[in-house]
């Protein structure tokens, strides 16, 4: 009987692979890891030699995972999570302190309750102070030292730094029975400027020459949903955030397609150990949710 030689995967190479996927390219991964693009390319080549598979499809304008790369990504992240958690538990078994986190209200409502609950159960000595607000306000407070970590909505090509932790497909949302009439000025229910969802809506309508007006402005998710439910207009939301009382407007209803947006995680330089733990937990938990 032939015995297969065991292959030991290099965790540093797996971490480089994972960060390339998170950052969307070799150059940005190199910036995050403090390495040159050629070094990043060499590490990918070494990992591909270890697993005997091609992990990325590369072209001047495109970088995407191959099917083998997709299969490796989940287990690689789980190995890194277990490794980092093991080291942290050995070296810092009693991490304690306070972490301040800022997050957009709608994203917090849809995605963070379970994520933060799991973190609190795993780290009972770490106190969380979470604030929900508009992205602009969160960024202002973050720059002023008001948060250890902040989650913000951004355009995929925006200059905002940070690690992408979520990518959202956006949909038009209305109350049951809403119909788009020919020539109608589209009434919009939006957040105050500057808001990524608001910009997505107005740019999409402008691109097809469809007139629009701001019918209702609200700083809260609940207020906007109530206005849409009352028939005051349509809004823009990710599919996961559409409540049962509202519907996604069908693609053939006459409204233009909306491009997806991103949520990025920013952290202050030299963050505390508790804040670092939370940042890693948020990234891992949201990635698992995305895959599911």
Please, could you describe this protein's structure?
This protein has 9 helices and 12 strands. It is α/β, with parallel strands linked by helices and 292 residues long. It folds into 3 domains: 11-88, Arc Repressor Mutant, subunit A (Orthogonal Bundle), CATH 1.10.10; 93-153 and 269-291, Periplasmic binding protein-like II (D-Maltodextrin-Binding Protein, domain 2, 3-Layer(aba) Sandwich); 170-259, 3-Layer(aba) Sandwich (D-Maltodextrin-Binding Protein, domain 2). Strand 1 (56-59) and strand 2 form a beta hairpin. Helix 1 (11-23) crosses helix 3 (37-51) and helix 5 (105-122) packs across helix 9. The longest helix has 25 residues, at 67-91. The radius of gyration is 22 Å and the shape is globular.
Helix and strand layout, with pairings?
Elements: H1 11-23, H2 26-33, H3 37-51, E1 56-59, E2 62-65, H4 67-91, E3 97-103, H5 105-122, E4 126-132, H6 135-143, E5 149-154, E6 163-168, E7 170-175, E8 186-190, H7 196-207, E9 212-217, H8 221-229, E10 235-238, E11 246-248, E12 261-267, H9 273-291
Helix pairs in contact: 1-2, 1-3, 1-4, 2-3, 4-9, 5-9
Question: What attributes does this structure have?
Answer:
44% helix; 292 residues; Arc Repressor Mutant, subunit A; D-Maltodextrin-Binding Protein, domain 2; three-stranded antiparallel sheet; 9 helices; five-stranded mixed sheet; alpha/beta
Offer a concise description of the structure.
With 292 residues, the chain is of the alpha/beta class. It has three domains: 11-88, Winged helix-like DNA-binding domain superfamily/Winged helix DNA-binding domain (Arc Repressor Mutant, subunit A, Orthogonal Bundle); 93-153 and 269-291, Periplasmic binding protein-like II (D-Maltodextrin-Binding Protein, domain 2), CATH 3.40.190.10; 170-259, D-Maltodextrin-Binding Protein, domain 2. The chain is built from nine helices and twelve strands.
């Amino acid at each position: 009987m032939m015995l297969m030689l065991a292959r030991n995967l290099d965790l540093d190479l797996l971490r480089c692979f994972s960060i390339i996927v998170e950052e969307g390219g070799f150059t940005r991964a190199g910036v995050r890891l403090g390495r040159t693009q050629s070094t990043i390319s060499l590490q990918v080549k070494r990992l591909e030699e270890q697993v005997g598979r091609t992990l990325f499809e590369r072209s001047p304008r495109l970088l995407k995972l191959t099917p083998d790369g997709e299969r490796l990504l989940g287990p690689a992240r789980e190995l890194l999570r277990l490794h980092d958690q093991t080291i942290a538990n050995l070296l810092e078994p009693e991490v304690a302190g306070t972490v301040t986190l800022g997050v957009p209200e709608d994203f917090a409502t849809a995605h963070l309750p379970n994520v933060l609950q799991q973190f609190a159960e795993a780290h009972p000595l770490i106190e969380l102070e979470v604030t929900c607000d508009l992205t602009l306000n969160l960024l202002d407070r973050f720059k002023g030292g008001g948060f250890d970590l902040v989650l913000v909505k951004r355009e995929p090509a925006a200059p905002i730094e940070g690690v992408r932790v979520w990518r959202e497909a956006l949909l038009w949302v209305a109350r049951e029975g809403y119909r788009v009439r020919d020539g109608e000025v589209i009434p919009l229910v939006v957040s105050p400027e500057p808001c990524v969802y608001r910009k997505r809506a107005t740019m999409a309508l402008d691109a097809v020459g469809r007139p629009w007006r701001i019918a209702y402005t609200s700083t809260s998710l609940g207020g906007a949903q109530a206005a849409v439910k009352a028939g005051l207009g349509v809004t823009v939301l990710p599919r996961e955030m559409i409540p049962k009382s509202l519907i996604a407007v069908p693609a053939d209803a006459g409204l233009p397609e909306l491009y997806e947006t991103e949520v990025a995680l920013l952290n202050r330089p030299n963050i505390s150990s508790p804040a670092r733990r939370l940042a890693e937990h948020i990234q891992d938990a949201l990635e698992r949710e995305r895959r599911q």
